[in-house]
Amino acid sequence: MKNKILSFALACIMIASVLCTALPVFASETVTVNSGEELRAAVAAVADGETKTIKVGADFSIANNSSNGGNNESLVVAKGATVIIEGDNKTIDVMTDLCTAEGSITFKNLTLKLTTPMIGTAKGGSVTYEGCTITQTGGRSNNNKFGAINADGGSFTLTDTTLTIHNGTRNDTNSNVAIFKLEGQTTKGTVNLNNSHIKLADDAVYTKNVYAFYDSDSGSTLNINMVNSTIGVKNTALKSAGIVNLTMSGASSLTSADSVNVVEMLGGAETFTLKMSDTAEISNAETSEANVLQLDQAKAMNIEMSGDSKIVNNGSGFALCGHNGYDKTTRTFALTMSGNAKIYAKANHAINVQHDTYEKIPATTITMSGSSKIVTDTADKYALYLGAATSFTLNLSDSAALTKKDGVTEGAVYQIAPPESDVPADGKLCRIGNTYYASLEDAIKAAAENDTIVLEANAKVANTLEITKNVIIEGNGKTITSNGADGFVKLTAALTVNNAIVTTDNAIGDHRAMFVFVGSAGKVVMSDVTIALTNAGCKGNCAVFSDENVKPGVPFDIALHNVTIDTQTSAPNARFLAGNAGGALTLTGNTSIKMNGNTIINVSAVDEAFNVTMEDNALIETNNGNQVIYTHANVADASGKFIGTAKPFNLTMSDNAKIVQTKSGKNAIGLNNSQRPVSVANIILNDNSVIQAPGIAIRVYTATANITVYENADIAGETSDVAVGGVEGGKTMLPESVNIVTFGSETLKMDVGTLYAPVMADKPTMRINGTSYGLRFTSSFQKERSTVIKAAFGTLITKADTVANTEFSAAALTAANAKFIDIKAVDGIDSGVSGSFNAALVDVKEANHNTVFAARSYSEYTFVNDTHKNVKVTCYSDVCTGTYADAALAQLADIKDASETGYTNDVDAYPVLDAATGKYTWTEGKKYSKLNDAQYTAISAIAGKK
After folding, report:
1. Residue 815 exposure: Cα atoms within 13 Å on the Cβ side
2. What is the pLDDT of residues 761-790, one digit of tens each?
3. In angstroms, rounded to a whole number, what is the distance separating the alpha carbons of residues 715 and 698?
4. Which of 395, 454, 713, 714 has the fewest CB atoms within 10 Å, i.e. the most exposed one?
């Protein structure tokens, strides 16, 4: 194929002068830096086995170094490298995720003001802060940690350091936030706090959980060492599913201000070990209704307390709760107390080691000496409340004691098995507080607003439950089996279900559901739940969730976290969600939905927008039906003809979320049909999220659709990624408007062929035209195998700082009133042409020779055939960054040892690139260049050599 080089009009850009100095050549073990770029380069220059001290010589900022709008760390420490940053009480404003350490990095005596979430990632290395003040504000809604450990042996250490987190760090309702997070099933990490303090500022208001420590994988190990350090959060301070070793000494404290468990072990946890000494304390607020330590899912619980250490519940829950309602494994609970150690509950049992009627109970050993105490300050509660433990040993010596209100140490200070007076004669299936009920129906009827019903055994529900007030069902791993012909529940209020299996014996009727929304206040929240349907229990096109099958319908509000539904073989006709209204569907925390009904999600959005959010590895998959998601409208005019609705369909995916259709020739998402159009559909894919199908990934009929695919995300249809228009029911349908934008994607398969994004060169080069010089960005493109008549090509250029926190697209830069240039081809390119094109900044002012410029090329496809005339597709390349000075150095380094064709001008000094450091060093000696004397002199000045 004949290549055709595009001819572009040259463009100049006037950018405000920014005084920058050339990056230094680091030859010694100690260097001084005065800018973010210098610091980044200095850290990157430290190799395996090297130790380097970097001194901060001035206050400065670290701009974002990412091509995707702010998602990559700025400072990268190589494995085996040791970096020490001496701050000298300077201030650094950080507008990017701060660092990734496979080696070791230490920040000393610095004030760090971060406007993005990450204070660092310990990728097998160590991140240390000494004598630092760190404030964190702002951030991205798809990032859920401040410090991450994602390889074995990674560690964070804070010494004489304060970390304060302000408002704006998390601005959505869907994902949890962790100050320190372990990532990966086998990760082993350590956090050390020495005379350091972590706190949420008064303005730090969050809409989801904020944990000090979070680890969701049962195969990992988290070591926490606190010395004279404090951690105060508003939500759970520590939540883990792995092995936890927590050591607290000195005046250390771990507190929470909300009504949640301060420490909580998740399902599958192996061991929780706590060692407290001196005046260490774990406590909660007076308003809390939760427990301080909720350890009932750990297989082994080991606690050692000495000195004046305390575990205190100031609210209405337990100081420590542990039981075995989740599997049939015998668990152990060992507590050793000495000195003046105390476990105290103001209004409940101090320690509650619950029993379960059908499971084995923890083997409990408590050894107390000195003046240690286990205390409840309530006369009708117990210092120690035990189920029928497999074994129980209590060793008391010295003046150690279990006490009740007013210091009572005799009589019923501890209790084994529940008081029989609280248990009805006809059974003890579930309870609210200490009141037991023989059936879940009875408990639902008796429950007050926001009551929690705790299952003590598997439950069978004879009839459909009516949920008319907000209730919580704590399943304790039990099974709830519904026999209701109209499903499990009808909702006019909120139902929360945790840690349970929900299934059905009776056949749910055709077009009916397990969970039926009746009133607009209906809501379902589930966490750690399995929903199981059998073919016998699901007749026809039944669903898990639906409205009452009336028009205009009832909006949905469904939030599922770590929920599993797999009916592909057990109930192949079942759907997930069907109804006549919009609402909200939120899937997080490894939620997996695998069903094979005709359409997994079939919603007619009417008076409500239909918003679907998928995060944290959420999956929806089918191997049957027409598509995974199908949405349309059921609004009719006075004559009965269906018309569109202005309410949109919004789908946002991130954090490895997937929508997968595996049935040969079938589609993933269908937007509208011929008679019932949805006016607007917005689809956004982030963070490795995928929509894929062996047919069409997304089919757009008559909607106005906006589809945005960011870097590392993908829409992948075997037949077509996106198909626009088509024929349904014998009627040809054309789109009103379709706008597709992809970032960093090489190809986009449309039903008209394959569209290509340009491929941009890694580095900019010098543009030389006689005595005119510039910074040139080069892109290449492939031919379009399509019916597209023309494709417009161009390049956007701006300062790298401009796109540090702004999407790098023409629309986003324009909306932000940012300075940039858009260099376009003079004419479009005919179909079937391949080639390359250049865009350049010329006559760059000296003050901007060391400014980092960013460029991104694009291809913009214009469809002129009848089917696609309202479709616009813009495909962006990856981002290229570089400085004018560096391009000049690279040009000067293009030399030969001997004169040859094209290299005839001899020079006496020239730059040589050090491949290890990426730096140029000026060297004297005779070489040959393609530049003439005037050009060599001019370009040397641009490179910084006078």
Report:
1. 8
2. 999 999 998 889 999 999 988 765 444 556
3. 8
4. 395
